[in-house]
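For the sake of clarity, the format in which proteins appear in this thesis is described at this point. Each number in the token line that follows is a code from a learned vocabulary of backbone shapes. One such record is shown here in full, so that the layout can be seen directly:
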Amino acid sequence: MIEKFKNQVEKDFAVGFYDSGVSHADQGNFIQSIADFTKVIQLNPCVAEAYYNRAIAYTKVGNLTEAIADFTKVIELNPINPAGYHNRAVCFYQLKEYDKAREGV
């Protein structure tokens, strides 16, 4: 997370929530992981990794619509990262939106 934060305290909080989100995801607690990554995003909406990890957690709980929204934000923030495009296409495919999955929309 190299994005700019307003101050060191804000950055420390964001890093703490980010690490907590990763830890909860590793333990299979995806609901808490989503909450932690949401806090990171509230502190700084430019942290693409928080959107990406939250999107993965959303897929784990079956919320593909929210996952697509987060993968779209990842693409907006980091358009050269293929993981956002790939995972969003997989979500579209799982929703049987085959044209969107093929087009990479």
Notes: The CA atoms of residues 14 and 42 lie 9 Å apart. The chain has a mean pLDDT of 92. The two ends are 26 Å apart (CA to CA). Helices lie at 8-26, 30-43, 48-60, 64-77, 82-94, 98-103.
